[in-house]
Amino acid sequence: MAGFIDRDKVLFPLKNISSVVEIFKNQLESNHEPDLALLSIIAGAVENSLTCRSNVSIQVVEPKTLPILELHTIEDLYNKFHAIMKGAIDVSKSENKVCTRETIKKVSDVVWNSLTRSYYKDRAHLQSLYSYLTGRKLDCFGVAFAVVAGCQALGFSDVHLALSEDHAWVVFGESGTETAEVTWHGKGNEDKRGQEIGKGVSARSWLYVNNKPVICTRAMEVAALVSAINPSLNATLDACEVACLQQELLWLLYDLGHLAKYPMAIGNLGDLEEIAPTPGRVPCSALFQEAILSARTYYNNQHVYPYTYQGGYFYRNKMYKEAFESWANASDVIRLYNYSRDDEEIYKEFLEIANELIPHIMKVISSGFSANSILKKPECFANLLRFYDGICQWEQGSATPVLHIGWAKPLVNTISKFDADVRAQVNIVCESDCSSLDDRKLPRSNGNTSCFNNNNNYCLSQDHAKSHNLIDQIESKVTKDEEVTNL
Ligand SMILES: CC1(C)CN=C(N2CCN(c3ncnc4sc(CC(F)F)cc34)CC2)S1
Description:
By secondary structure, the protein is α+β, with helices and mostly antiparallel strands. 50% of the residues lie in helices and 6% in strands. It has a four-stranded antiparallel sheet with strand order 5-4-3-6. The protein has a three-stranded mixed sheet with strand order 7-9-8. Helix 3 runs parallel beside helix 8. The protein starts with 5 loop residues before the first helix and ends with a helix. The relative contact order is 0.08.
């Protein structure tokens, strides 16, 4: 590990964004691995100086300048982190050895036991070592990151961060295939720190992405800390210097190839580019597409967020037909999983799409009568069915139910907005008898597109037909309603 060397120290005191980018560049291009503790402390210090309560007056700083960051501030915290780790774990005998589960548990205990007794865990700005070293507070990602940074400080180059879409753990050992929980997840769940990643039912939950997590290199761990930078000043305002720093650091990592296997980081960059496009760079829509391609290429299309990044972009830009397709593709991913109580985050995501975003779209478009309204397009109806059908299939075979009556009303409301002649163009094809499909949900390796048959009708393939009973119920209810209204 390069550590905190003179080439970086001469850049202090840090006064602007480009000097911070320069330090990250030096670390990433050095022939040693980048120093996670150093970069997390610097990113956290910059974020803290521009967003935290301490300077409540909205900073009016020169564009791209930062409140001055002195060398001793960073150096003292860096030395403190090394002292904590080396004071707690004796590694003299394990020079250049791979790490053991026992040592990882010790490092996790050091972090865990040094945290403030009780604090609001979901608060912003609790993700960096700056927060850990100055406030003794970390969020669940921050604990996992601190353990990996601690192991790096102790000389273990085999310990790496493993990331799902809502959880983080570590991999280690000779072939990097040992796994260990090092942090908590969610509210009120007993932490499983020290244990290997679930082989049981939790393995089928979205939380562990069907054992297709992002396994980080050191540079991807830098991408994770950069992704975790939080520019929010409060619920409505962002500190633009912090957002600008995050955006420039993500482009630096992108250009060095370190985001290629990290769909969520590409998605984060897409979100930032949508707000403030960088001249000469690809449009944000291309980044959302790249994130999807990365998830399909490296993670067997088992990740949901790349599609919801893209769907959110289409929705915000009133591209509703395209949004339906992205959301249907997201639903094609979740249908492979069994819903478990650890999956609240993605449940909330689908709930918001089904019960807020789609109803909003139905409201704003049904006022217009334009001929090319999406209500006239069978592919929109097909994608909506595919979206709802995936959620139904997600529920099937799961211990915990997904759907409740609150889902049905917006669902029927939406379906009934499409005229019968449009709905008639969508065939629900049972390519094979449903009963022959076993209940295990084998991940399908093909990309997600709604299948189109030759005579330009839109058919839902065999997997979708599994919940055709729900679709039949909707169809019959809608038809009945129509009969009633046509009486
Ligand atoms: C389409 C969305 C709702 C927009 N933002 C989304 N994010 C998903 C989570 N985000 C992330 N971005 C980069 N890396 C990671 S690792 C991780 C799990 C945590 F426990 F470590 C989360 C996450 C960033 C924001 S999904």
